[in-house]
Design a protein that fits this description.
By secondary structure, the protein is α/β, with parallel strands linked by helices. The chain is 32% helix and 17% strand. The strands form four sheets. A seven-stranded mixed sheet has the order 2-8-7-6-5-3-4. A four-stranded antiparallel sheet has the order 9-12-15-14, covered by helices on one side. The protein binds 4'-deoxy-4'-aminopyridoxal-5'-phosphate (PMP). Belongs to the alliinase family.
Amino acid sequence: PSSNGLPSVNATRTSTPTLHPHSFINLEQGDPTVFESYWKKMGDKCTVVIKGSDLLSYMTDLSNVCWFMLPELRDAIERLHRVVGNAVTDGKYIVVGTGSTQLFQAALFALSSPDNAQPLSVVAAAPYYSEYPEEVDYLRSGLYKWAGDAHVFDKDGGAYIEVVTSPNNPDGSLREPVVKGGKGKLIHDLAYYWPHYTPINHMADYNIMNFTLSKCTGHAGSRIGWAIVKDKEVAKKMTRFIQMSSIGVSRESQRRAAKIMEVICESYENVMHMRSDKFFDHSKAVMTERWDKLKKVVEQSEVFSLENYPKSCCYFTGEITETQPAFAWLKSKNGIDDCESCLRGLKILSRGGIRFGADPKYARLSMLSREDQFNEFLRRLSNVRGISNGH
Ligand code: PMP
């Protein structure tokens, strides 16, 4: 994989449909193709027809703070959170973005001010999502700057923004702010706060909560994210940022996202639906199966170990369950210092711990690949017995 996170030549080769035993398996990115088979099974249920005469205007709903958001998407987002019970939307503002990547940057813009003498420090507890440092510093903004691991941040240095990612990417931990007692502002990145990844044990109710269709339903290509925002002025500034960077968000994508959310909600609101047809029941079962298989393989391994996750009651499913993250955070043991290189030796592409502000003994691997890739990954992992450093 290239340093900018985009697929390298090898990685592109792995996306061919037949898996050759000598080809690389690319689990470096969290591409959510695992859900493709479910949506294929849904056939035409989510098909959206868009006529040539539809959606010509820049303008959508000038009465809304987020004037480029389709009212049907806003309704669908509120309905989805009501069905799942994972976030409070009442009395809040919703801002749609081109993925939550755009909304993260919109939030940084909204929380900072040109009147500040110094750029605002942006921190996240390590291991943090590897894209945050680059997204913060890429344009060398005078408004904010990346200040690294929140655990070692000196809050007396002034105002700051802490990004709280829960469940966390890469390690799946459930998190709260780490910097205590400071004058910090918070951005909650809740990309993975959905029942297939973790028990839904509280209604999230924070100032800025970012969600994304990419990790919720797997439709990463539609590039739809949404922020639930408490403060009107912050929502206005986020909207202004999106106006300046892309004059809004594709309405075709918004329509598709709304349709997909409506179909999911309908399946939970209508008692006639079979369990296996309901998206979160299906996706949760797939994640449970994958995690069970991976844990069995790693238990036998002399080379790798995995995190343990706490159990709690999920109000959505009514069951006691464990977090089953979208990524495996694998740690190499027995004197192997570089997990990523070790995996590369097995022709498995992962993202090494250093990118997340962590030890190179760790590597992150996607649990969201297609079935054949996942099974081949397990096969390669289970074939390893003793490996010495550098092989
Ligand atoms: N936040 C986290 C924690 C993520 O893992 C991702 C995707 N990998 C994003 C934000 C961005 O998602 P998107 O732009 O596709 O909405």
